[in-house]
Design goal:
Elements (H helix, E strand, L loop, with lengths): L7 E8 L3 E10 L2 E11 L6 H15 L5 E6 L4 E9 L3 H15 L7 E7 L9 E10 H13 L3 E7 H12 L8 E7 L3 E8 L2 E9 L1 H4 L9 H7 L1 H22 L5 E5 L6 H11 L2 E4 L15 H7 L4 H7 L3
Parallel strand pairs: 1-4, 4-8, 9-12, 12-13
Antiparallel strand pairs: 1-2, 2-3, 5-7, 6-7, 9-10, 10-11
Length: about 325
């Protein structure tokens, strides 16, 4: 049993194509405390060696060498499916999914790692059960693990980025009611994570890759207006994909998405929020992924944190995993 003065420290690393974000937390009797954070920008064209070098910068600057870290995966090589299966015993689910998974996963079974989670109580009176199936290509997972190993870190936990987003929102985001239907959108300029939930229950998860469109975006684009203008082709594609996702959910489940909660790099631009509001016809709200964390100004550069806090949802959600 932990003594009152004891704490558990965890590190979340969000390894994006255009950024590396780090959050270090500790869990104590008063709740989660932000110990440190960091971020470096990447060029989408950087090699594996260059990315490892940039990660090493954070490791050395923050003094986290040899510590266990939690990382996330996303993109086309990660498959998330919400399955509606006949009710069965827990020990029967794993065996059933070995056969069911082949219907939903477009990869050879020997190429993937897959897991599942039962989303409803097994003592429910319903004759069917909702099961979350997640699969990722072994090659992608091992590339991340190898990157971590190269800089002297140890992999503690591997999550799916979209689930880290949910984890962070449910710990640090605004309170929601069990009947509220809303979307979480983490907008980076190369990858967008989308979740649609009712209360705390997820119904829809999707990653939208914007890698091709983002290749034309440099780290610096002159003024903000020039940067937003350069983003126009990316934004047009993104709006189309967001509409398709929301329309699919609303048609499939006959539920209406009322609010979209935005985080990520895109949340730093008020003009983008106005644009999405007008194009999607939904109420859009920003939320602070670190707002409910305990912070001590003597230990944390609060001005620097304020500049990037909206981009830390994935890293924070990963750090919240034990």
């Amino acid at each position: 049993m932990l003594k009152e003065r004891d704490t558990i420290s965890t590190i979340g690393l969000d390894l994006g194509r255009r950024h590396i974000n780090m959050v270090k937390l500790s869990s104590g009797p008063d709740g989660w405390k932000l110990l440190d954070f960091g971020s470096v920008a990447l060029n989408a064209r950087e090699s594996k060696d260059e990315k490892a070098s940039r990660l090493q910068e954070i490791v050395q600057e923050k003094g986290i060498a040899a510590l266990p870290v939690n990382i996330g995966v996303c993109g086309e090589s990660v498959i998330v499916r919400y399955l509606d299966l006949p009710r069965m015993k827990r020990e029967e689910v794993a065996q059933a999914l070995k056969f069911e998974a082949q219907q939903y996963i477009p990869f050879k079974m020997e190429e993937i790692i897959f897991d599942y989670h039962i989303l409803e109580p097994l003592d429910s009176d319903r004759q069917r059960m909702k099961v979350l199936l997640v699969a990722a290509k072994k090659q992608i997972v091992m590339e991340f693990v190898e990157l971590i190993r190269r800089v002297g870190l140890k992999t503690n936990f591997i999550d799916v980025n979209s689930f880290s987003l949910i984890n962070c929102f449910q710990s640090n985001g605004p309170d929601v009611n069990e009947n509220d239907i809303y979307a979480l959108v983490n907008l980076e300029f190369d990858m967008v994570n989308i979740n649609i939930l009712q209360g705390t229950a997820p119904f829809f998860t999707r990653d939208i890759s914007l890698l091709e469109e983002s290749r034309s975006l440099g780290q610096e684009q002159g003024s903000q207006d020039q940067f937003l203008e350069a983003m126009r082709p990316l934004l047009i594609n993104l709006i189309r994909e967001l509409r398709l996702s929301i329309d699919y959910f609303e048609s499939e489940f006959e539920k209406q998405v009322a609010i979209i909660y935005f985080s990520g790099d895109g949340a730093r631009f008020p003009e983008l929020i106005d644009f999405f509001t007008s194009q999607l016809g939904r109420e859009i709200k920003l939320w602070n992924p670190v707002q409910k964390l305990i912070t001590e100004p003597a230990q944390i550069d609060t001005d620097a944190l304020r500049q990037i806090e909206c981009t830390l949802a994935l890293a924070c959600g990963l750090a919240l995993r034990r």
